[in-house]
């Protein structure tokens, strides 16, 4: 079975750029009704029983398509999925009817305790099988395909036998799931592990990509004094990531793209300007491709 | 090494700050790297501590950032969330904080408060946003602190309080009560939606049906009885223009409601609380009035008050007697 093609627009009209919906921006959004492709939310924030969170998201959903991004399903766990949490995710998806649903290649729960971070896993025959099983279960429960996001990582595992791009390609092949290509995560991991992000992207199974994430990162260093980037989501997207993004959409075409700014959330105009920059990158790439066709 | 063994070793090292990075992990030098692993360890701790800071902003203001972080760090080490639904995490923190502060008063050392060096993925809750934007005021329903005390510092209040005006144990109880109120506020914020009954419906009841009338409470409505002036302390501690000043004095009973999106906190007179609690438990109007045991108790006014506050979703008339 070949990797399913997830490049169709999936009902998202151009422009297909979106931002994370943050409650502090709600008034600005409903008052100005900005032209955006979609809003994305963390599924877990809408797993309460009601109140303002649901009310606001209903109002957003009336006006825009939604992307539902889970952070707590722990698809990368060795043990079984938390069925109760999967049901909660399915309930949120049913309630808000998102156009896109995604989760992470990571684990976050261990022995019943939720660790509230996206933790890495080795890439082995055992883990590719286990992650694929989990994704099958998720897609069955949701009654739709999901997108799996590539991680940002700070450590590697000695026991890994698969390259990350091959690992993701194989999961997509086995399950028919799509991929969420987080270009910032590629950049962060590339700096952290000393590989060329362009080579990673050249090897990435782009036909499976249904969404792109772009986010800011923070600088740090490791024990050896080598640079370490932290996937902080707390700042504008760096120029190097914009460059990788242009390269990616040159190959992929316009793809739903999310500006992911979760910490130190800026004022609405700042977040919106990041989205407009993504739109310009798409337009410029499209134009340069047209020129190339003409020449 | 099996997948399960790897994750188990990783999780074990995460939970123990002094543990070396797991042997099967490596950085660019091909060996385990403590700073790289610390990113994960700090993300876990700082993320969970952040969730408590978001849930208990007033308590945090009362005790100060440093003491709050110490308490939160200790709580997080002992209490991991049992689900990924972080909006439900931390309900046991008020009781933990009381024990923690009591231990501090008794002279036990506090946990070392290392700062989280790394950034972390954090999702501010909707509740925090509402509070930051200015909690909706309900004029007349909250009494400001009556103490008039000025010049109270924001030092951690349980330690070295040389003013002597508030006994340390009372300050601890005050803080725990405010934290309980905050927790109930968050629960109300996320509670199920329901349409509220109206005063018009109440007015439409015939006198024959009144004694046997029952009411059904809104899922968000909560009644809390405190031994300290918790609601007043909660309100006054939010005022950014004034230093925190915890009031002494008698306890308060609070009614929390959320008829629409906004959470409201009211102080109830003691008999009104007793009356409301009976009604919440399913008593008829006559049963609740009898339980209050005060012929002067104006049950009509208090019943109207309950309905007006948004605490009631349905009024079930009694049978004509």
Low-confidence stretches of chain B: 109-167
How would you spell out the order of helices and strands of chain A?
EHEHEHEEEHEEHEHHEEEHEH
β-strand percent of chain B reads: 5-15%
* Biggest sheet architecture of chain B: 3 strands, antiparallel
Count of DSSP H/I helices of chain B: 12
How do the strands line up in the largest sheet of chain A? Answer: 1-2-3-4-7-9-10-13
Q: Mean of residue pLDDT of chain B?
A: 83
Oligomer: heterodimer
Number of DSSP-assigned strands of chain A: 13
* Largest interface, Cβ cutoff 8 Å: A-B, 72 and 64 residues
What would the principal axes of the Cα set say about the shape of chain B?
A: elongated
Number of helices of chain A: 9
Rg of chain A (C-alpha, Å):
18 Å
Account of the 3D structure:
The complex is a heterodimer of chains A (295) and B (321). Chain A starts with 16 loop residues before the first strand and ends with a helix. The longest helix of chain A has 27 residues, at 268-294. By secondary structure, chain A is of the alpha/beta class. In chain A, strand 2, helix 2 and strand 3 form a beta-alpha-beta unit. In chain A, helix 8 (239-252) crosses helix 9 (268-294). Chain A is globular and about 50 Å long. Chain A has helices spanning 26-32, 52-63, 83-96, 125-142, 164-175, 183-193, 197-203, 239-252, 268-294, and strands at 17-20, 38-42, 66-69, 100-104, 107-110, 113-119, 147-149, 156-157, 178-182, 209-215, 218-221, 227-230, 257-260. In chain A, the strands form 3 sheets. Chain A has an 8-stranded parallel β-barrel. Helices cover 44% and strands 8% of the residues of chain B. Mean pLDDT of chain B is 83; it is low at 109-167. Chain B has 12 helices and 6 strands. In chain B, helix 7 (168-190) crosses helix 9. With 321 residues, chain B is mainly alpha-helical. In chain B, strands 3-4-5 form a 3-stranded antiparallel beta sheet. Classes of the chains: A alpha/beta (295), B mainly alpha (321). Chains A and B meet through helix 2, helix 3, strand 5, strand 6 and helix 4 of A and helix 1, strand 1, helix 2, helix 6 and helix 7 of B. Strand 8 of chain A pairs antiparallel with strand 1 of chain B.
